[in-house]
Amino acid sequence: RSGEMAKLTQLLDNEAFRAYATYATIVLLKMMLMSLITAYFRITRKAFVNPEDTASFGKGESAKKYLRTDPDVERVRRGHLNDLENIVPFFGIGLLYALSGPELSTALLHFRIFTGARILHTLAYLIPLPQPSRGLSWAVAYAVTISMAYKVLKTSFYL
Amino acid sequence: RSGEMAKLTQLLDNEAFRAYATYATIVLLKMMLMSLITAYFRITRKAFVNPEDTASFGKGESAKKYLRTDPDVERVRRGHLNDLENIVPFFGIGLLYALSGPELSTALLHFRIFTGARILHTLAYLIPLPQPSRGLSWAVAYAVTISMAYKVLKTSFYL
Amino acid sequence: RSGEMAKLTQLLDNEAFRAYATYATIVLLKMMLMSLITAYFRITRKAFVNPEDTASFGKGESAKKYLRTDPDVERVRRGHLNDLENIVPFFGIGLLYALSGPELSTALLHFRIFTGARILHTLAYLIPLPQPSRGLSWAVAYAVTISMAYKVLKTSFYL
User: Fold this and answer.
1) Which of residues 100 through 159 in chain B touch C, CB cutoff 8 A?
2) Hey, what domains does chain C have and what are their CATH numbers?
3) Buried-most residue among A101, B7, B37, B149 (CB within 10 A)?
4) pLDDT band at A84 (very low <50, low <70, confident <90, very high)
5) CA angle at residue A88 from C73 to C47, to 5 degrees?
6) The complex's ipTM?
C-alpha cells in the first residue's frame, strides 16, 4: 500500500503538475467566491428569488416585495456563469495538458496568464470597467485554453 | 502495454482515490438527475421554452400558450445551476486532493459530508424546506471544498 | 526528475486514456464554441445585457435600446447551459472511467457516441431541427454517461 501511495504522490512531485494543481485550485476558489458575492448583494439589496428566503422579513405582501431582481445581483450572477463557461474548460483541458509533459516554463506561462486574465475579467465585470477590458481579459483566457488544447491534441491524438 | 494498464489501474487501487471516484460519481449522477426532474416538471406543467418542443400540442396559438415559465420548473433549474456552481469545484479540487495523499479516514470524512450536504441541499430546494436548511447544507458543502483546497495548496503549492 | 516525467507521460501512452484526452478536448472545445456563437449573435442582433457593452453605440437612450434579449441569443445560451449540464458529467465520469481500465474498443464506443450525440444536439438546438432530434441526441449522450458511471462504480466502489 505504501508503494501505491508513493506513486500517487509522485504525480504531485512533478513540477508542471504541481503548478497546475495550484493555479487550478486558485481559479476554482475565485469562482466559488462569486457565490459569496451573490449572497452579499442579495442580502444588502434585499433581492431574493425563493419565497422561503424572505420568510424572516415577515409574512404575505411585506415579504413578497423582496422577491425581485436587482441589477447588481444579476451582474454577479452573469460573472459567475461566465466563470463556469470558461474555468470548466481550463480545468479539464489544463489537466490533460499538465499530463502531456509540457515544459515547466511554458506550462507556468499558460497557467499564470489564464489566472491573471480571469481575475481581471471578474474585476472588469464587477466594478464595472469600460469595455474592452472585460472582452479582452475574456479573449486572453480563451486563447490560453485553446493553446493548451492544441498541445493536448498534438500529444495524445487518438480518434 | 499490460504494464501500463497495471499502472493505470493502480490509481484505482489506492483507497482514498477509489473513495473519491465513488463519491464524485455519486454527486455527478445526482446533478444529472436534475435534468430528468426538469423534464418531468416541464412535461407535467406543460411549460416549455423552445417553440419546437410544443409542436405536438398543435399549431399556432394553441401551442404558443405552453411557451411559458413555471415556478416549479424554475426552482429545479435554480437547484441544477447551484449544483454546477458547487459540484464542479468539488470535482476539481477533490481530484487534486485525492492525489495529494490524504489520510483515508480524513478523505472519507470530506467526501461523505460533502455528498450528504449536497443531497440535503437538493431536498431542501425541491420540497422546499424552510430556511436555513438550504443555506446551511450549502455552507457545509462549501466549507468541505475549502478545506480540501487548503490541503491541496499546502501539499502542492507552486506559483 | 526525468523518471517522474516518464511516468506522467505513460498515462498518455495508454490508448484508452489517449482516446479520452482526445474526445474530452473535442467536446470541451465544442462547448467553448458556444461563447463565440453567442458573441456573434449579440453583435449581429445588437442585443446586449451590460450597459458598458453598448457604449460604442452612443450615449443615453440611443444606446439603451440595445439592452434587450433576442430569441437567437437566448437559444444559443440555452444550448451552452445544456452543454455545461451534460459535458461536465462526461468529463468527470469519463476521466474516472478511463482510469478504471476499460477495454479500448468499449471505451472508444462510449467516447465516439457521446461526442457525436452532443454535436448533433448542438445542431438540433441551433438550426433548430424538429423534435425529437434534440431530445434523442440529449438522451443518447446521457445514457453513455450513465453507462460509464456504472463501470466506474463497479470497478472502484468504496463508500
Assistant:
1) none
2) 15-44+70-154 (1.20.120.550)
3) B149
4) very high
5) 15
6) 0.93
